[in-house]
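Quick question: what would this complex look like in 3D?
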Amino acid sequence: MDLATVIGSVLAWILMVAAILVGGSSLLAFVDPPSVVVVIGGSIAVIMVAYPFANLKTLPSVMMNTVFAKPSEPGVLIETLVEFAEVARRDGILSLENAAADVDNEFIKRGVQMAVDGTDPELIETIMEAELENVILRHQAAKGILDGVGKYAPAMGMIGTLIGLVAMLANMDDPSSIGAGMAVALLTTLYGALIANLVFLPMADKLALRSSEEVLMKTIVIQGVMAIQSGDNPRIVEQKLQTFLPPNARAAADEEAA
Amino acid sequence: MDLATVIGSVLAWILMVAAILVGGSSLLAFVDPPSVVVVIGGSIAVIMVAYPFANLKTLPSVMMNTVFAKPSEPGVLIETLVEFAEVARRDGILSLENAAADVDNEFIKRGVQMAVDGTDPELIETIMEAELENVILRHQAAKGILDGVGKYAPAMGMIGTLIGLVAMLANMDDPSSIGAGMAVALLTTLYGALIANLVFLPMADKLALRSSEEVLMKTIVIQGVMAIQSGDNPRIVEQKLQTFLPPNARAAADEEAA
Amino acid sequence: MDLATVIGSVLAWILMVAAILVGGSSLLAFVDPPSVVVVIGGSIAVIMVAYPFANLKTLPSVMMNTVFAKPSEPGVLIETLVEFAEVARRDGILSLENAAADVDNEFIKRGVQMAVDGTDPELIETIMEAELENVILRHQAAKGILDGVGKYAPAMGMIGTLIGLVAMLANMDDPSSIGAGMAVALLTTLYGALIANLVFLPMADKLALRSSEEVLMKTIVIQGVMAIQSGDNPRIVEQKLQTFLPPNARAAADEEAA
Amino acid sequence: MDLATVIGSVLAWILMVAAILVGGSSLLAFVDPPSVVVVIGGSIAVIMVAYPFANLKTLPSVMMNTVFAKPSEPGVLIETLVEFAEVARRDGILSLENAAADVDNEFIKRGVQMAVDGTDPELIETIMEAELENVILRHQAAKGILDGVGKYAPAMGMIGTLIGLVAMLANMDDPSSIGAGMAVALLTTLYGALIANLVFLPMADKLALRSSEEVLMKTIVIQGVMAIQSGDNPRIVEQKLQTFLPPNARAAADEEAA
Amino acid sequence: MDLATVIGSVLAWILMVAAILVGGSSLLAFVDPPSVVVVIGGSIAVIMVAYPFANLKTLPSVMMNTVFAKPSEPGVLIETLVEFAEVARRDGILSLENAAADVDNEFIKRGVQMAVDGTDPELIETIMEAELENVILRHQAAKGILDGVGKYAPAMGMIGTLIGLVAMLANMDDPSSIGAGMAVALLTTLYGALIANLVFLPMADKLALRSSEEVLMKTIVIQGVMAIQSGDNPRIVEQKLQTFLPPNARAAADEEAA
């Protein structure tokens, strides 16, 4: 689980609530159901226009993944692949069938299975890269929606504020109510800014980073499976795959290996 | 029909109207014909300057397509193409003439027809890719216009507000009318924001996604027709085309096939 | 002539004037010569700093071209080129000398003339592509300036408004004059927005589209001349060139040919 | 000297001063030394954080160059190179030694000298292209700083205005001083906008254009020196180099040559 | 140490404080602990959501590096590499073992060590380029976070101001407190602007430049080590590596060498 995301999210909202309470206002002054409906309802409606259901459906699982998925350690991944390369070299590639079945990582499992089945190497690569490509596309689609909410929520906030201002200015019989009217009008802008900057834009940033991590993992796996399939020397496989690690991680892996 | 677009569009406007009514204003306070003319008329005029008639003419049909076109299922598409590959392999490519005539998809039909006619494979590919390229260009042109309205409508709104403010400030004889004057002045900004954010910008986002879906479909068809034309093994054709599908869709297709 | 540009431009300004008059103000309240000088004069001065005279000199002709140039019909262009290919095949390439002299299109004329003169095919292509490259650069330079005015005019408007506000606030002896002072101060912002959004930004958009049209035309001509020069079969030339057309235009051309 | 830059710069400031005086204010109302210090001093301080001294040191000479450098005429450049090609063909490449010494253009001189010295052609090209690359990098660095000032100066202006507003609002004992306080607060925003839009952003635009001109020149010289070195026919050299000129310049060059 | 960064940072804050004091306010009017908590705490919380801990952990060291790292002189670097090339040519590559041990630069040391160990040249290049790639990625990640703070801090400032305004407007019983309330509300916007423009955005700019410098250094080292490994003539190595220097640095290096 990505603790930073959870802690950061909770902390951000606590700070906002604290800022309100410390300022001496009651939280109630900041809750206006119609404003909530305009900004959140309006954003949802517009997002439905902007993105197909198919993409919207995958959004929650992608977001959950971003927060809760335990990213594989590239070092562990490389170890597994090097181990497989050793087994394949020693006992033949068919002996990998059982070993692969025990692996957690679905992507390695499918890749090794194809190698065991004697699938044409080029086809293995095409299929694995197509899957990598699909992951990238799915992440881009999800990031597009998160960025979309980050763009449309503030716009809905501004529209709500304009509606509030026009309503207030149009019947300004009682000057003493101007303050309250403007306060309510500004709430939608505040809601829009909170939704965009406390939730969706940072989630989009995090997703982009998670996506590049997953691309790195899958690239390592593809390289590893291809090397195993062609029966490369396990030492060479290790050296090749370790070039994907940052230098300090590489040093650590070396020590461990020593 | 893309229900999400229709529901989202209707919902967004209902929410805006509800926000006004709940706030205790009458809808009439939000309707000012001259403001409508400045924002909508001004946007149309500027769009005429910015984009050639030829492109503007195709806009409605592209937008209708975005909303109402039933996107082909890539799985079904692949099935059809694999079936054709089987027929072509079993009975010769000429036997596809009748089968192709029954297909809904114009792009497959034309491609298979060229293969049946014995057109040079390279020319088939050039012609089909040129058509794909043209679809991309047409969609880009339409998206450009939608984005253009999303850019110019708020600008017209701001211009209208500036005109309203200057008019109000220039003859401020009656201070009690200031509120009403400002309310009217703000209406154009509100209109511009509504037009851009509730209609044109989300439609542009949706069009971009629809366009990439159509590119995917047409790419699958081109690959499929080329494979049929060269008499590839239907199993290989299937494996190749399925790499274009997301992994879950691929699994589904496999089960179905099994 | 590009009627849409002319109609759109005139319509936009009529709407703005109408909006002022309908609002009950006199047009005079919107004319302030010093504000005009700050925004227009300031923009011109800054544009002189930002762009070399050489580029500024070509701007009017490029803008005139954008509005008044009759774009060649790609279909007609292709017909001409196919006709030339037929003549060249039937009577030899030298017989094109007279035919080429009658063509309106300078670019075809020069290209065919080089082919007739027996210039080295590679050199013909280099020269024609260099010319195409030059057209692209000239259009980009002009678009850069139009975008530049679209960027600097609003900035000048904001500067003018700031100057007006500071002046008004600094000597606020007579509170009754505040309204009039603010009205004048806002005028420069209005001018900047009008100049950018009613003239220069839409012209920049149109120019970009015209430029891509001209690139298409010149690309067709280059391909055609190269094919004529190498004595290709006119039918093949036609098929090749038609891949540059949108499918419906292609169908029309086919029917016409039939 | 680039007159347009000088005239434009002077004109822009004259117009701003005139706008103030015509508005009936004294210039003194627009001069506030602390505001000048915040915006200009703050921008300089931030620019020191953002860019290394090494780059800042070269900025003045690059800016001076932008304004005062006499750009070489590409036509004249080509003439010189063609002449050299003739001499080299007629009297051998060694005879260029003296001719090259008389040329103003340092880049041609160094290139020809290397050719005369019998340096390996590949190395000549590498060295000359490295120099071209360095010019591009130096210009990009300078443009980055100019754009940086265009970004940070308005930010410093806004910060100054916020400081002024907070100070004014915090001790609002004397309502009659509000106007004057706001006027001073707005001055920093005005200064930031003037510095960015009247000086640094247009200079950055001009520098980008000058840079692309110099790249064109240096590219022509590289092509020319390589052609001279390999003893190409002077006519061919001319035709090749002229493809870098715009068509009208090409026509002029031809007439002159005739 | 990068003095410019330190001096610029200190100077910028001194100027801001001076601007406050000169304006006659007390610094206390500009310190509001809840506002500090909202902007700084909120930014930290959001940054935790947006970026993984792994990246945040490396940020301080990357920032320290940006300020305190003494950048290698490319000229000195080239000298060292040329020297090594001479030693390798004269006494064989094994004799470099001791020389390399004395070098400060870790990257040269590792590269030469691999050459001495007789590692396969292709593998040396792959490993060194992977390390270069990792440096680029680490810098991009750090720059992404700095830019992220530069984006979220002003957003938090705006959110704080909106909260302050709503609180103030909602209980406007005492009109005399409006000024003070607005002053406090504006403080968060001021804080956000200061944090972004005085610290994080300029640091991001500087980091980008430092990163490109380090890429240049590492590229020179890679080229040099590869040349040493293949036993190139030291003169040729020098000429090749000097093409990475700006012309004036090159001249200086030549003189020194002479």
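Answer marked as accepted. Chain C is about 80% helix and 0% strand.
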